[in-house]
Amino acid sequence: GAGVSQSPSNKVTEKGKDVELRCDPISGHTALYWYRQSLGQGLEFLIYFQGNSAPDKSGLPSDRFSAERTGGSVSTLTIQRTQQEDSAVYLCASSLVFNEKLFFGSGTQLSVL
Amino acid sequence: SQQGEEDPQALSIQEGENATMNCSYKTSINNLQWYRQNSGRGLVHLILIRSNEREKHSGRLRVTLDTSKKSSSLLITASRAADTASYFCATEETSGSRLTFGEGTQLTVNP
């Protein structure tokens, strides 16, 4: 596609439910990143992939969070047993060169009621 | 903790004026990047400056990097109302692998 695509754009869920967020990066970009942004705040690093491998998972806030990437393309971020503090915009980005010139998707606004 | 910290947190200027934002960081870096965010959604890459560079230009943007002071500045000349956005610096530490973003500067350009 022309840009990084994220779905859904908005997700409202009840506390305790599981959610799955999807990111479709720019074709050919080997590096993929997930960040989280709370209202009016900066970006909090969650995880990055180089190909299908995630060398640094220490940014994930808890063991309720997991992410995977298959075929060097689409990535999913899964949050199990959602809590209200998980409410935020989840941003995905991809790049051709690692950590340079990231292209961001429009994000998924997650609201946990 | 955040590697980069922008200053000021908010800046309001008139159209046509110049806007200067600063970013300070704590550890040695490979590069520093500036991004713009409109309406709290996706960020757009503006410019990248490497640790061995001191100044870089792109259109109305001018970025400087002072590695001895661990700081960078972003200058937007002849600002326009469309420049209204949040601006973030991002750093890649030499010792780490993450690209870390600061808290951002909210720029408002009044017509």
Keywords:
heterodimer, A: 113 residues, mainly beta, six-stranded mixed sheet, four-stranded antiparallel sheet, 10 strands, globular, B: 111 residues, five-stranded antiparallel sheet, 0% helix, 59% strand
Notes on the structure:
The complex is a heterodimer of chains A (113) and B (111). By secondary structure, chain A is mainly β. Chain A is 0% helix and 47% strand. In chain A, the strands form two sheets. In chain A, strands 2, 4, 5, 8, 9 and 10 form a six-stranded mixed sheet that branches. Chain A has a four-stranded antiparallel sheet with strand order 1-3-7-6, with no helix packed on it. The model of chain B has no long low-confidence stretch (mean pLDDT 92). In chain B, strands 2, 4, 5, 9, 10 and 11 form a six-stranded mixed sheet that branches. In chain B, 0% of the residues lie in helices and 59% in strands. Chain B has 111 residues and is an all-beta fold. Classes of the chains: A mainly beta (113), B mainly beta (111). Chain A binds chain B through residues 4, 33, 35, 37, 39, 41-43, 45, 48, 55-56, 59, 89, 91, 93, 99-107, and chain B through 2, 30-31, 33, 35, 40-45, 48, 88, 90, 92, 97-104.
SSE diagram, text form:
The complex is a heterodimer of chains A (113) and B (111).
Chain A: E1 5-7, E2 10-13, E3 19-24, E4 31-37, E5 43-50, E6 65-69, E7 75-79, E8 88-95, E9 103-104, E10 108-112
Chain B: E1 5-7, E2 10-14, E3 19-24, E4 29-37, E5 43-50, E6 55-58, E7 61-66, E8 71-76, E9 85-93, E10 99-101, E11 105-110
Parallel strand pairs in B: 2-11
Antiparallel strand pairs in B: 1-3, 3-8, 4-5, 4-9, 6-7, 7-8, 9-10, 9-11
Helix share bin of chain B: under 10%
Q: What is the averaged pLDDT score of chain A?
A: 95
What is the β-strand count of chain B? Answer: 11
Separation of termini of chain B? 36 Å
Largest sheet data of chain A: 6 strands, mixed
Q: Output the helix-strand order of chain B.
A: EEEEEEEEEEE
- Backbone shape of chain A: globular
What is the chains' assembly state? Answer: heterodimer
Average pLDDT over all residues of chain B: 92
